[in-house]
């Protein structure tokens, strides 16, 4: 191939536009969209100058900011005809190709690409020469053949080709107007010699015509096959005979005999064997290649792959199991105790069946990972089924085998995956199941998780009873409130609480840091992070019940440390306070300013969410009005009812309280606000907090800021029990509140609270709102002549 320096060249300095998937040929006019800012600026620069621009294609169209090495060396100098700017920052540009050009190099420009370009003058050849005439005729023939295969080709293209006299112009015209890949156009553009250009284009067109003819032939065969549906049976019979003659394929009778041998070898009940044998008998009578035969064959394959009679032997050493669980996980005392109890009972009663456990707790506390650890401890196979977002009952029970693409449900597939009849199956996120017109998956799980029913569980696809009694089912959930009551009733609930800061420190030291160091190729010789820095990560960079975000932060720090070590900037990285700030950035979370001065109309409550406990501030304002009650903060119906119950209770107790506005329900408007309005809130446990804030504002008595409270109220002033006490008290402790008011009815739940929390937090037990007000307000809100809580009275209405 002739080099461009063999031709006459002229040097230019021009703006450069990198094209993606486009090649502009000399003599052609092309419209294209420009979206990238450097390209837009290059076109603007051309319009402000002599309208000329260097147009060159990218080698890789996915590169967003191309360098010189990403561009083809040969391109085309174009003249910008017009530029129409569009909404959104892009533009439609029309250019005309002028000359072939070579991009020698890019030179400096901040806003757009500018290149040193050599324009190449490629002299055409005389059309009267034999070589030129032969090539023109060959190109004309190929274009006519191309047009016959693609009848939608515009007639003016064919006419222009037939009337062409110049070989060079003809080659450029064909390359510009046929639907060729841009790489092929680039090959033509890079041919400076006219004869080489024509030969290159003839080769490309010949190959394209060959491919199009092959595609056309395949399309005709498909079309013909669709017209022969009525002869399918006859053709299949012919294929069977041919296959028999060649010794290929399988005779249905022989196939059925093979299935019978496998069925007889199964270690299962006679009822199941009889069902399988009857299906094998049906298969032997099916014509070769029939749809129903393939359905039966697939069904038999699926059933015979199930692990009938295969069991793993449980490891029933209690002490060894305790050591294994402690090695794998820190804390989770209740879960470990329950598993050790199960192992102990299995030692004494090997026939124990029907164990179904639900682990409920916030995200990141180790529910899923402890299930895998339990399987390892017991020596059982492990399979996990993710239930989040499932809305189709068939996902649990399977589809009828007559449907196209039918398959067993997830439970049977998990058994098949585990390869034994007594695996541990984890049903993850059971509280995230939905339902729609296809059925309710939670209803299907009622049979799976009922020890009295699952010994004859029937999958819609299998249509045979399958014993799930030996399966150890463990489910996980973030909130049991979303689990239907009948389903929850079938499971033994174990609640897993949030980790304290000390728990997280120990988990990080024992598990997270060694795991991430191994993952990132770090050792104790080249990396270390102190306990103080881990504590700062926990307190200032993560706010979670578990340790998932903490692990991500540690991984981020170790990646940066690994980068420094690998680049030679440091031989060992010691993460101190300075390094921590450099690697982790500014502190994400600051401790809530709860240690404030006592304030009127503001009370501190406690809430329980799916991600753990939270401190909840409640604010009340009294304004001139007509007795309206305004509630804001994305509240649910139950919380709104608690607000109205609190207002009614205060009105009923008005004569006993030192109210600044005795007729507030006529002359004042009350606004009760729950900050963080984007977060939905609901539940009755904020009742005493709402009442305290209201009484504080109406009496002008500040609320103590060092106390948090939780409890439901009644219209008569009783304080009722609430849920989530463990998580709520954990939130109070984490936020520096060391005195919590809780209902008397929850006294028994204190035993479940973390020992660290119990040792630092003082609990005040109350049974009536009056006790709450006396404890929470800086002074008693009751009038001096009013009966106090606990005194005898004649009136029927109970005191506060």
Task: Write structural notes for this entry.
The chain has 800 residues and is an alpha/beta fold. 41% of the residues lie in helices and 18% in strands. It has 27 helices and 24 strands. It has a five-stranded mixed β-barrel. A five-stranded parallel beta sheet has the order 8-9-12-7-13, sandwiched between helices. Strands 16-17-19-18 form a four-stranded mixed beta sheet. The chain is extended and about 120 Å long. The N and C termini lie far apart (102 Å).
Placed side by side, the strands forming the largest sheet appear as: 1-3-4-5-6
Quickly count the helices.
27
Main beta-sheet strand count, sense and barrel state: 5 strands, mixed, barrel
Shape: extended
Query: What integer is the average pLDDT?
Result: 83
Task: State the end-to-end distance.
Answer: 102 Å
Topology:
Elements: E1 8-19, E2 29-34, H1 37-48, E3 52-57, E4 74-85, E5 91-107, E6 113-121, H2 130-149, H3 155-162, H4 167-177, H5 182-189, H6 194-226, H7 232-246, H8 252-264, H9 270-284, H10 291-304, H11 318-328, H12 333-348, E7 356-360, H13 367-378, E8 382-386, H14 394-397, H15 410-418, E9 424-428, H16 441-448, E10 457-458, E11 465-466, E12 472-477, H17 485-489, E13 492-495, H18 501-519, E14 527-529, H19 531-540, H20 548-566, E15 573-575, H21 577-584, E16 602-609, E17 612-624, E18 629-632, H22 637-652, H23 664-667, E19 668-673, H24 687-699, E20 708-709, E21 712-713, E22 719-720, H25 725-734, E23 739-743, H26 755-760, E24 762-766, H27 769-776
Parallel strand pairs: 1-3, 7-12, 7-13, 8-9, 9-12, 14-15, 18-19, 20-23, 23-24
Antiparallel strand pairs: 1-6, 2-5, 3-4, 4-5, 5-6, 10-11, 16-17, 17-19, 21-22
């Amino acid at each position: 191939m002739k080099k461009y320096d063999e031709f006459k060249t002229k040097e230019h300095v021009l703006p450069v536009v990198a094209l993606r998937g486009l090649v502009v040929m000399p003599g052609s006019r092309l419209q294209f969209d420009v979206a990238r800012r450097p390209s837009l600026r290059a076109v603007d620069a051309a319009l402000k100058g002599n309208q000329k621009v260097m147009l060159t294609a990218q080698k890789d169209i996915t590169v967003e900011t191309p360098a010189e090495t990403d561009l083809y060396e040969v391109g085309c100098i174009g003249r910008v005809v017009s530029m129409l700017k569009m909404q959104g920052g892009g533009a439609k540009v029309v250019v005309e190709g002028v000359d072939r050009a070579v991009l020698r190099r890019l030179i400096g420009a901040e806003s757009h690409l500018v290149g040193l370009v050599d324009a190449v003058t490629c002299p055409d050849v005389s059309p009267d020469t034999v070589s030129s005439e032969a090539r023109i005729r060959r190109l004309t023939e190929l274009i006519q053949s191309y047009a016959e295969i693609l009848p939608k080709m515009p007639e003016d293209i064919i006419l222009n080709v037939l009337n062409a006299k110049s070989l060079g112009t003809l080659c450029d015209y064909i390359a510009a107007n046929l639907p060729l890949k841009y790489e092929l156009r680039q090959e033509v553009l890079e041919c400076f010699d006219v004869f080489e250009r024509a030969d290159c284009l003839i080769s490309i067109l010949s190959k394209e015509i060959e491919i199009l003819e092959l595609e056309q032939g395949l399309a005709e065969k498909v079309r013909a096959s669709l017209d022969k549906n009525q002869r399918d049976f006859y053709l299949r019979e012919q294929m069977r005979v041919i296959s028999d003659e060649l010794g290929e394929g399988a005779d249905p009778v022989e196939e059925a005999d093979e299935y019978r041998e496998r069925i007889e070898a199964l270690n299962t009940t006679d009822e199941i064997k009889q069902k399988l044998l009857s299906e094998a008998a049906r298969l032997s009578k099916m014509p070769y290649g029939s749809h129903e035969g393939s359905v039966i064959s697939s069904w038999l394959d699926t059933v015979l792959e199930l692990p009938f009679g295969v069991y793993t032997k449980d490891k029933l050493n209690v002490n060894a199991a305790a050591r294994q669980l402690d090695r794998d996980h820190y804390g989770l005392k209740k879960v470990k105790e329950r598993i050790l109890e199960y192992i102990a009972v299995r030692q004494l009663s090997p026939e124990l069946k029907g164990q179904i456990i639900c682990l409920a707790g916030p995200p990141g506390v180790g529910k899923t990972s402890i299930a895998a650890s339990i399987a390892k401890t017991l020596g059982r196979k492990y399979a996990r089924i993710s239930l989040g977002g499932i809305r189709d009952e068939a996902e649990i029970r399977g589809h009828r085998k007559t449907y196209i693409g039918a398959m067993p449900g997830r439970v049977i597939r998990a058994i098949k995956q585990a390869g034994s009849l007594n695996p541990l199956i984890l049903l993850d996120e059971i509280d995230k199941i939905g339902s729609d017109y296809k059925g309710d998956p939670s209803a299907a799980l009622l049979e799976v998780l009922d020890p009295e029913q699952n010994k004859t569980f029937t999958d819609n696809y299998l249509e045979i009873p399958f014993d799930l009694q030996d399966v150890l089912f463990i489910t996980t959930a973030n909130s049991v409130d979303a689990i239907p009551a009948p389903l929850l009733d079938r499971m033994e609930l174990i609640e897993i609480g949030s980790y304290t800061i000390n728990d997280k420190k120990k988990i990080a030291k024992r598990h997270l840091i060694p795991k991430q160091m191994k993952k990132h190729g770090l050792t104790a010789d080249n990396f270390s992070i102190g306990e103080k820095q881990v504590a700062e990560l926990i307190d200032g960079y993560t706010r979670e019940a578990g340790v998932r975000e903490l692990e991500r932060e540690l991984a981020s720090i170790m990646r940066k440390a690994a980068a420094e070590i690998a680049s030679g900037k440091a031989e060992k990285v010691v993460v101190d306070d300075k390094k921590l700030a450099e690697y982790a950035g500014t502190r994400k979370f600051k401790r809530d300013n709860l240690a404030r001065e006592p304030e009127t109309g503001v009370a501190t409550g406690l809430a329980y969410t799916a991600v753990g406990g939270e401190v909840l501030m409640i604010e009340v304002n009294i304004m001139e009005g007509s007795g309206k009650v305004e509630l804001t903060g994305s509240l649910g119906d139950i919380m709104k009812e608690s607000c109205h119950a609190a207002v009614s209770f205060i009105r009923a107790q008005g004569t006993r309280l030192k109210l600044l506005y005795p007729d507030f329900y006529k002359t004042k408007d009350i606004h009760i606000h729950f900050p963080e309005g984007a977060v939905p809130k609901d539940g009755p446990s904020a009742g005493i907090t709402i009442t305290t804030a209201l009484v504080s504002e109406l009496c002008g008595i500040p609320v103590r800021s060092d106390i948090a409270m939780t409890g439901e109220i009644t219209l008569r002033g009783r304080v009722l029990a609430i849920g989530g006490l463990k998580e709520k008290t954990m939130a109070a402790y984490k936020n520096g509140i060391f005195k919590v008011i809780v209902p008397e009815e929850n006294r028994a739940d204190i035993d479940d609270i973390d020992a660290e929390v119990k040792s630092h937090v003082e609990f005040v037990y109350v049974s009536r709102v009056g006790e709450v007000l006396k404890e929470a307000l800086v002074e008693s809100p009751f009038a001096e002549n009013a009966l106090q809580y606990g005194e005898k009275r004649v009136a029927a209405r109970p005191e506060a």
